[in-house]
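User: quick one, sequence for these tokens?
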């Protein structure tokens, strides 16, 4: 079974990097969104297993990143949310973790920052730690 990922970030280069690392780990990227409103639409349509969400994005259609996070947390399903943000504050990280996100990655997103999250995802999805998500 292949696990799916939705990437929500207003930076196209960052989306490309996140997509690369998830794809390399065996996840199928089912969508990319440049803002929370677009991300929520794709989230509802595609029902991904994992969502990465940037906290600092322009509000579009009255939807902020925090509102996107809250709407996804209220939705039914077994999806996991990973925050990928330039906000380095421990208090923000702790608040997000208390809100139920799987992890909080401080940008830049790279193999080094992704590896602990990849291991957590492997444990959640009952995959061997060295295994990719699609195999």
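Assistant:
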């Amino acid at each position: 079974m292949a696990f799916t990922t939705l990437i929500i970030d207003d930076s196209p280069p960052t989306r490309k990097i996140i997509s690369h690392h998830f794809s390399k780990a065996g996840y199928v990227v089912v969508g990319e969104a440049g803002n929370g409103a677009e991300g929520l639409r794709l989230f509802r349509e595609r029902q991904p297993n994992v969502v990465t969400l940037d906290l600092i994005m322009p509000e579009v259609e009255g939807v902020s990143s925090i509102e996107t996070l809250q709407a996804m947390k209220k939705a039914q399903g077994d999806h996991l949310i990973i925050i990928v943000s330039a906000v380095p504050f421990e208090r923000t990280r702790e608040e997000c973790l208390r809100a139920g996100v799987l992890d909080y990655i401080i940008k830049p997103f790279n193999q080094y920052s992704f590896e602990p999250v990849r291991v957590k995802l492997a444990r959640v999805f009952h995959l061997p730690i060295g295994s990719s998500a699609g195999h």
